[in-house]
Amino acid sequence: MKKRSILFLTGIAAMSVLFGGTFTAEEASPGQITIGCGYVADNTNPVDSAWDLTSHGISEGIYMQDAQGNLVSRFVSDLERKDDLTWEATLTGTVKFSDGTDCDAQALADCMNYLQANNTMTNGTAGVVTFTAQDEDTLEIVTERATPVMSSLLAEWCNIVFKQDGEDFLYTGPYMVEKLDSGVSLELVPNPYYDDRAEDRSNVTLKVFRDAASMQLAFEGGEIDLMFGLTPEIADILSGEGFTVKDYDAGYQYFAFTNLLSGPMADPKVRQAINLVLDREEMTAALKGGRVANGIFAQYYSFAGEVEEITDVDAAAALLEEAGYAKNDAGIYEKDGEALSIHMITYSARADLPILMQLAASQLMKAGIESTTDVVDDIGAALEAGEYDVAFYAQHTAPSGEPSAFLNMALGEGGSRNYAAYQSDEVDELLTKMGETEPGEERDQLAKDIQAIVAEDLPIIYLVDPQWHVALSEKVADYVPYCGDYYVVNAELGL
Amino acid sequence: MKKTFLYLLKWFLIFFVASILIFAVVRMMPSTPVDKWLDAYHLPHTEENVTYMREKMGLDTPLTTQYLRWIGNFVRGDWGVSLVSGENIRERFFAKMPYSFSIGIAGLVLGATAAFFLGYRAAKRRGGFCDRFTAVLTVFTQSVPMFILSIIIIYALGVRLRIAKFFTGDGKYALWCAVLITALYSMGGLSRVVREAFREEMKKSYVKFMVSRGFPRETVLLRHACKPALASLISAVITRFAGVFGGSTVLEFAFAIPGLSTMLVTAMDSRDYNILQTYILVVILWMFVVHLVLHLVLQLLGVRRET
């Protein structure tokens, strides 16, 4: 027995020697901020990784959204339309790249023209756009097609400001890349030329976690300071444990596409009935945040809808009876001996959506409507193939701070998100008018009118204007993220 | 000589037939890397966007051209670049390999070494501590998922006691734990294999004869009866070596270790054809090496085995 114990202890000692060191955790650098997230940029190329670089606080668009959804610019002080296709931007002249060189009109023209030539996605809104430096502080912008929303075009995710420095790229955001380990982590240091608060900023590390439970443990163990992408359950647990958990406006919207082409949802009365059965208050309660949607845009935008969504099961029953449905002995609506069954689909990338879908299924069942649910691998393909009656979806519907891009995409003829070929002369007319109207109250009203029509026709069912949850350590307790995951690291981090 | 030639020919054929199958199967996956990329950025699947991305990813040429280009480059040592990030796959592979290999190989070797001695003691004294311990360990590792144990360890050491940082710093704690958990999970099953092999030998007349002649049982077992037990253990271990690639997914996810499994799952998510094809082909090459080593080691031990 004694011999065995000695052998066991020797084994343990050998293992300790083999793996070295003592079990004492290293102290994290006090000034360091570590963020737990689901991804980091694969590279620092402005064509491949524009969205990621801006989200990480490295690059900036010429225009960006503030927390209220307004478009603001550090680069441009005045933007004037000269004629249908020509704009003139007067620069502030205060922005520098991270090597200290000025970001003047020529630098802006160079990078924008490079992106126009190398990323055809930059040509989507107004065709090929040509940028010419008139002098150090004046930039002429000529579009191929007319657009009334140049500031929004310059706020599109792919239009980021950069300067090529040999093999590397320099940017203008509050942080610059110290070390990138693709798919693993990204180390950032403050950009000394961003503003006069650079010295107050901490180094930041973005650490990728593939598993939410591990990220939660890392946060609870004090290894990360910020945890994004919290599910409602984890937010609740962390909040209960005394950690700071904040809700912030996502900008993204949760809504559902309806299949107008085939199946029960092709009947407008059934669509209206389903819309009335859905209890959105229950949905926001399940998500532990957010508001009942009043349109297709986040409610902080000036062009947000003014639709009032209500739940009225009796009115829904009346509509179903008008559509020829009657309840059978089992309490399920049927027509010509066939039960009313709604096939609902969604995808798992946005964790809130399956919750909403299951909730909707239970609400429908309570109202006597059968449903089947499916979490699909490729939501785009399922939508294009029409393999759904109702498809739960999430999207930031105004990423460049204006409404017409999404409305055209989802409701316009041939629009890439108009999966069920929705067509309305009234909406088409309003969309055309919108394409000719400068930003302002009149344009906002057009967007509101379209959202009101959609609430009647229901090619899209508005669900939730969500708030997402973020957990923060004491070090960054004052930090307020905004605009979903578009600006995970913003200039206020740690200040 | 003829045998060696046939052995190599068999693997050569496996390699090329597999490469065609891999290429075809990967392309048959629902949704393409272009779809996935556009979805990831919430971009519409317009004709312009799809065409642009297909061109950018090199998917606009005929499939035969794509296959020949890929396999030709692979054979020449050029594994291509990731469709999504544009990174050199070979460099990425070799950067991540140490993590997965440390977990897989070190864990397995450690587990097998412990399993040999535990199995030997379990065989020597039926119903003794080691026999009962290995039986319990086998049931434990079969019934408690690796992920649960990992989370418990992280919670105990990282959250409650705060004596180890698993996710920040140089990642040594995460790697150690992953190795030890792999060792633990291989130990139970392997020790039972060794135990059975020793017990089989103990029934044989040469062992009984030597013990009856007064040789100590331990000496007889460890000196004369250990070869069959070792052969059984090595056969069992070698089959588990296939799991070095992709076998540590759970641990890599739980401890946020950036190994090959994480790379594979990410590539699956984004339908990165180049990484997926290359990964599977490298696994085949790895299996070839493993089988070759098995072949040689068993020959050294004097065990006859059909190829």
Stated plainly, the CATH topology of the domain at 93-272 in chain B is called MetI-like fold
Gyration radius from CA atoms of chain B, angstroms? 24 Å
Class inferred from helices and paired strands of chain B: mainly alpha
**Large-scale geometry of chain A:** globular
Strand order of the largest sheet of chain A: 10-11-12-1-13-24-14
- Termini gap of chain B: 14 Å
- The level 1 CATH classification of the domain at 93-272 in chain B is Mainly Alpha
Residue windows where pLDDT falls under 50 for at least 5 positions of chain A: 12-28
Choose one word for the global shape of chain B.
flat
CATH architecture of the largest domain in chain A: Roll
CATH architectural name of the domain at 93-272 in chain B: Orthogonal Bundle
CATH superfamily of the largest domain in chain A: Dipeptide-binding Protein, Domain 3
Number of strands of chain A: 24
Largest interface: A-B, 56 and 52 residues
- Helix content estimate of chain B: over 70%
The structural domain count of chain A equals 3
